[in-house]
Design a protein that fits this description.
single chain, alpha/beta, TIM Barrel, 2 domains, three-stranded antiparallel beta sheet, 24% helix, globular
Length: 372
């Protein structure tokens, strides 16, 4: 908890909390259940108490906007090749020592939030930039719950889809409301032991597994999973076997799994980068345990980045980094060689956005481009 002052003029009242007998209020948004005195903020830093209510301090304020390839989220089975307008706010409800976006997730929002935008502005920008979807990313959208939902509503009103990039650390009631407005999600399954979650994220494994099962079995949200492999922490054959077997048995073989390479960052600068051979080994283990779509990320691996028919082995979608090289799906998402359906959400034709990255200033829609 933090006692950093909250400006009531820029804070928006929010739900998912209740008063306690000792005079504090408890935030019920995530499994941390922060208990706050007046003026205190939760661990996420952006939700806090003012008087007798809880507020969100980052509504309508972003750490920046950028048009990315959707494969960067990463989503390989949701509108491949299309551009997605990405944005985040500040703060996070986990404390990952290996955070790759720590400058945003661990920032104090007044240092980071430079771009202000209403939900309607974001939806209009996505339209003008020919994006098929908007991603809530860079930091976890769980903590800017109300803002993300309002953006999703504005986007759906103009035919733009919504994508959550999240750690899945949320309680059931707000989770149900949130995902009623999402079209796709990539959930970080950061490891597969309680020890890993406790020591390296400050959280717990069980709520994340519960979110994954909820998404797959109780919603229509397209789900993909990412696991960042950290040398010596979550990359053993035993843990990778347990993780992939759990996904196959509890979620089904069609949920895509992305193994991503760690690079030294934040509080784990002394840990070496993940070797490409580790990702290849993990992919082989997951495929052997029944998963049909397993990918490698943060390394140059055209084979590990491509999609194959689980029936005949035909390369359905070739990828070289974020560029699509092959497209062997029929207009209704089936293998053009054997007719087997490929799980996912596909347009009749692939997108052609490629690897471009387009920073955006919503305030005046002045844009600049940069190659990845």
């Amino acid at each position: 908890m933090s006692d950093t002052a909250i400006d009531p003029a820029t804070a928006r009242p929010v739900g998912y909390w209740h008063p306690l007998e000792d005079g504090r209020v408890q935030c019920d948004l995530c499994p941390r259940f922060c208990k706050l005195h007046d003026g205190q903020r939760g661990l996420c830093f952006v939700r806090g108490r003012v008087g007798d209510t809880m507020v969100l301090t980052t509504y309508g304020r972003s750490s920046g906007f950028c048009v990315d390839p959707i494969e960067k989220k990463p989503l390989n089975h949701f509108l491949p090749g299309t551009p997605i307008l990405s944005f985040g706010t500040a703060g996070c409800n986990l404390a990952c020592k290996f955070c790759q976006n720590w400058d945003i997730s661990k920032s104090r929002e007044f240092d980071t939030l430079a771009d202000q935008a209403t939900p309607e502005m974001i939806a209009q920008a996505a339209q003008k930039l020919n994006c098929k979807s908007v991603a809530y990313t860079y930091n976890d959208p769980v903590i800017f719950h109300e803002y993300a939902i309002d953006v999703a509503k504005a986007c759906h009103a103009v035919g733009i889809k919504s994508v959550a990039v999240t750690a899945g650390y949320v309680t059931p009631e707000p989770r149900k409301e949130f995902y009623a407005h999402m079209d796709a999600a990539n959930v970080d399954l950061k490891g597969f032991t309680e020890e890993f979650y406790h020591k390296l994220t400050g959280g717990h494994l069980a709520p994340v597994l519960d979110t994954l099962q909820y998404l797959q079995h109780e919603t229509r949200v397209w789900l993909e999973i990412t696991t960042l492999l950290i040398p010596g922490q979550n990359d053993s054959d035993q843990e990778l076997t347990q993780l992939s077997k759990w996904i196959a048995e509890k979620l089904g073989p069609d949920v895509p799994l992305h193994f991503s390479a760690f690079h030294p960052d934040y509080k784990m600068m002394d840990v070496p980068p993940t070797p490409a051979t580790t990702l290849t080994r993990a992919r082989k283990i997951a495929l052997a345990n029944g998963l049909r779509y397993v990918y490698t990320g943060n390394v140059h691996d055209p084979q590990g980045g491509s999609t194959y028919c689980h029936s005949c082995g035909n390369k359905l979608i070739g990828r070289d980094w974020y560029v699509l090289s092959d497209w062997n799906l029929t207009t209704d998402g089936k293998c053009n060689q054997c007719g087997t359906t490929c799980a996912g959400v596909f347009d009749a034709k692939p997108g052609t956005w490629g690897a471009r990255r387009l920073p955006v200033r919503l305030s005046d829609m002045v844009v600049s481009t940069a190659k990845i």
